[in-house]
TrEMBL record:
Residues 116-203 form the ChrR-like cupin domain. This is ChrR family anti-sigma-E factor. InterPro entries: Anti-sigma_ChrR, Anti_sigma_zinc_sf, ChrR-like_cupin_dom, RmlC-like_jellyroll, RmlC_Cupin_sf. It comes from Aquincola agrisoli. CDD domains: cupin_ChrR. Pfam families: Cupin_7.
Length: 226
């Protein structure tokens, strides 16, 4: 059962298409497995459509259509985080993607992304870079942390969205399990601890930086772009 969801402000921004690409990908990954949030997104999209219908018609500038078509022709197709796509099989990582535990599906919002192999981050900790085709600068990554291990205590210079794909962690605020979503910002100072008995794998998007308390953790975080 999913206990933690994106707030309505995030879902509304996602429905409006105003979220930064990395954050949109993580919200989309959550919505794939959460009927509650899919229903909320549908409601917000319907409200947006209704509001558009109430707007007064506006005259287009000369050559506006031609300029728009030229921009479309010159832009690579962009897949939004909410676009439906078949989820790759968990046991057959596509295109050299890293492995996931048996029975754990890849979020279909990652379709078209480049996902690196697992890389060492620390004892019992690995990470993988996720590169978005339409926004390569987006700071998105996977974390794979062993049972009983923890990230160093940290806060955030801006915001971090996290979707749990496998396992559980507790950061002192709540217990987050498979399918759960977490949003953290500079007001949150925490240390996620993976629960005993199983590793934990999360998909995360960071705007700004993760600000670690410990010098070594800050150095490692900077080295991997966190």
């Amino acid at each position: 059962m999913i206990h933690h969801h994106p707030g309505d402000e995030l879902l509304l921004a996602h429905a409006a298409g105003t979220l930064q690409a990395g954050h949109a990908l993580v919200v989309g990954a959550h919505a794939e497995g959460c009927a509650h949030c899919r229903a909320r997104l549908c409601t917000f999209e319907a409200l947006g459509g209704a509001m558009l219908e109430t707007l007064e018609p506006a005259h287009l500038a000369p050559e506006a259509l031609a300029r728009t078509m030229a921009r479309i022709d010159g832009t690579a197709p962009r897949r939004t985080a909410a676009a439906p796509a078949p989820a790759p099989a968990a046991t057959a990582a596509p295109g050299g993607w890293p492995d996931l535990p048996a029975g754990t599906p890849w979020p279909s919002s990652l379709a078209g992304c480049v996902v690196s192999r697992w890389r060492w981050l620390g004892p019992g900790m690995r990470w993988s870079r996720v590169t978005l085709p339409h926004d390569p600068a987006a700071n998105v990554f996977l974390l794979r942390i062993g049972a009983g291990k923890c990230l160093a205590t940290h806060t955030h210079s801006n915001s971090e969205l996290t979707q749990v794909l496998y396992g559980r962690f507790d950061d002192g605020r709540a217990l987050f399990g498979p399918g759960d979503f977490d949003e953290a910002d500079g007001s949150i100072h925490h240390q996620p601890v993976v629960q005993a008995g199983s590793e934990c794998i999360c998909l995360a998007s960071v705007q700004g930086k993760v600000v670690f308390d410990n010098f070594l953790a800050r150095w490692l975080g900077a080295a991997v772009g966190m």
